Amino acid sequence: MPAKAREKTGKKLVIVESPAKSKTIAGYLGEGFEVTASVGHIRDLPQPSDLPAELKKTSVGKFAVDIENGFEPYYVVSPGKKKTVSELKSLLKDADELYLATDGDREGEAIAWHLLEVLKPKIPVHRMTFSEITPESLQRALNELRDIDTDLVDAQETRRIVDRLFGYELSPVLWRKIKAGLSAGRVQSVATRLVVERERERMAFRSASYWDLLATVEPLETAKGGSFKAKLAQVDGDRVATGRDFDDRGALKTRGAVHLDEAAATALAEALQGAEFAVRSVENKPYTRRPAAPFTTSTLQQEAARKLGFSARTTMSLAQRLYENGYITYMRTDSPALSDQAVNAARRQASELYGPEYVPQSRRVYKGKSKNAQEAHEAIRPAGDSFRTPGQVRSQLGNDEYRLYELVWKRTVASQMEDARGSTSTVRLGATASDGRDAVFTASGTVITFPGFLAAYEEGKDASRNEQDDAEGGRLPNLAEGDGLTPQEVTAVGHETSPPPRYTEASLVAELENRGIGRPSTYAATISTIMDRGYVRKRGSALVPSWIAFSVVKLLEDHFRDYVDYDFTAELEQGLDRIAAGEAKRTDWLNGFYYGDRHETGLSTVVNDLGEIDPRVVNSIDIADGITLRVGKFGPYLERAGEEGSEEPQRANVPEDLAPDELTAEKAVELMETQGPGERELGQDPETGRTIVAREGRYGAYVTEVIPEPTAEEIANQPVEYYKNGKPKPPKKPAKIKPRTGSLFKSMTVDTVTLEDALKLLSLPRVLGADAEGNEITVQNGRFGPYLKKGTDSRSIGSEEEIFTITLEQALEIYAQPKQRGRQAAVPPLAEFGVDPVSEKNIVVKEGRFGPYITDGVTNITVPRSTTIEQLTREQAIELLKEKRAKGPAKKPATRRKAAAKK
């Protein structure tokens, strides 16, 4: 008997990525639609160690990708998504149609494809995409349904596979030769190289000193205007050197330029005192400036960093929330184009707010660099066919969300406004010095006569070199050739050439995009990764590389040159674009990447032919004559040959807060000369006979015991073990004994600690006795000072010296007191960072139940495990609080019932 046909329910199931997005969409689609979320990807490549046993020794085993059969990925439902998949299948049973409404980019297309592969629906399936969450946009999307774009899926899957191949082949090399836990990513490695190369340039840079003159003059005819400043440009017809005329070694590189030193500039200034100045030429040019294009992902990250101080990660987190709640369009886009509806909305709003004269006759059209029409999203703009002003949404948004929305709104409206217009004047002044030399000064000024788009918005700029040479003034007097001028003051001004500025998040994003490296939608994750890995840290807004980043980049440059080459990485991205456009096949492209072709050597061949890599070479950088920086297991240190007769080299730790370009030859010598003894032998432990030494460590001075390696005789005298066939196994080294260690008290140093002190420190924790219930009480030193411990109950004590004097009775008295918490404890903060710019409350670091955390009294965020309290800066604290605010309050998980055991 045939199965009974299921009755139609009329229900349409819509699946999106995030719960926030599903909630907003559900409110617009109305009855008949059930909207739910997959909460991101439901499947991914597993760790090779998690593969089924039968696959581990096959061609799938190394990467969870079948490298011998078309690079087929072996996907599994992520452990945390099994319940989600079960719920989606349950909802699907009652639906008549399925709408896959994940984002319209490659990643969203891949998520939709994975859902289709796992859910295996037997009902009609539609692919639904939209760039904004508004009733109008959703209605348009329902009228423009399509199938899943397999080319976009192939491009995204290829990216995932190539990143797995790259990371899993290169990262183990870093673990063996530099440090465990490091990673080499396809884009993150290149981004790290950019930051390191900039620091190398700064390290090689030698500043040059140059001087010029600044004259303050005013017209003889006061009716023409007031005084103004002019800079020296020529002496006797030769141009005066500015910062751009010097190379990075501090040498003058421009022929014919006059290099004034302090003495020459001062002498010329004195010779011009009282000289007669006159206007030699006046040049007036019309000034026109066009508005910037609407935001793409990259330009939004750059401008939010410049104007709002947001990290790329914070910007994308805020933009995601604004998009999901229907305030802006999709935030991952390469296109600056606006839809007709958006252009009309921007022009209408500009006219209403600033006047019709601020809107040009014809609409402005912006085109992006992306050749892939299938991914030609709109620019990031306010959502809707008419825009809400920032004032209209202010009460609905958090402070940071509002600031980002306001930035997007201003940029979008300004993009459809008139040019700013005005005029630029350049005046050349001349005077003859008392010693007969002819001096020419110049002054420039721009006057805006019609602000145009500047009434709404002006784009920010990144720092550039020798900015002082480009300084422009404002309005100049109404001068004519031959007009006389009176010098009020002529002064000599000294300058130093500046090194290349370090990258900021904004300028690094701009550089990556300019070189075609990676996708703008991944830049936030890339920058977060290189910071989390310890390759880069922030100093203010500047990105400073660590010494370990130097080692990583050096190894990759020497042995994997192509894979950190900027052009090669950009070409890989173009290859993925070709796959997305249907112009290349995934399998062919991956074969060329991994196995090579007629033109390129594949990654597999490069890794297999790697040869010997000397870790000492990779981890060494020459700093000064005879002084080398080594990147060691516990951090960077300086090393040079020891004193005559000593085989032990002299070493000195490098301060954590010292940037690489600040470690000059002079500074290296200073650190070597002022460093105390790196290690001092204190004597023998009378109980064990082991040598006790005091050492300088990465996290402070400590004492430890030296455990000698077992001798050949000791190894040979171990009990013999046998194989099943009766043959004896070769002797193996006994398990290593972990040496006892103890941090020095604050009052101790490596050169003053005694053997007696050391033995006391090594004896910790000290057992005081037990309480009435038999619970053992110990005293020890911890990260945040000395404390008592009874089970899980810890109590602080006054000073480190009390560790060896406190008695059981005193400890019991402390435990007899109620344990103080919160404000009553009056425990001083671990660190203070001043007032938070957002909440305007003091930022402090406190010790919490789960470790130290940062708080401004309103928002709390745990200090990252990779950062010590001493390393934490004010800028990092502000940034971490900002990111936590952007995420919003943590949602409490629903209470789960324990599943019944399977029978």
Folded structure, characterized:
β28 and β29 form a beta hairpin. α6 runs parallel beside α18, α7 crosses α15 and α10 packs across α15. The C terminus is likely disordered. It is globular, with a radius of gyration of 34 Å. The longest helix has 28 residues. With 903 residues, it is of the alpha+beta class.
Q: What is the gist of this entry?
A:
By secondary structure, the protein is α+β, with helices and mostly antiparallel strands. The chain is built from 26 helices and 33 strands. A 6-stranded antiparallel beta barrel has the order 9-10-14-13-12-15. A 4-stranded parallel sheet has the order 2-1-7-8, sandwiched between helices. The chain has a 4-stranded antiparallel sheet with strand order 18-19-20-21.
Q: Helix content range of the residues, please?
A: 25-40%
Strand content: 15-25%
What average pLDDT do the residues reach?
A: 87
What value does the Rg take, in angstroms?
34 Å
Major sheet description: 6 strands, antiparallel, barrel
Distance between the termini: 32 Å
Strand order of the largest sheet: 9-10-14-13-12-15
Got a strand count? Answer: 33
Shape: globular
Structural class: alpha+beta
Poorly predicted regions: 371-376, 822-826, 892-903
Tally of contiguous helical segments: 26
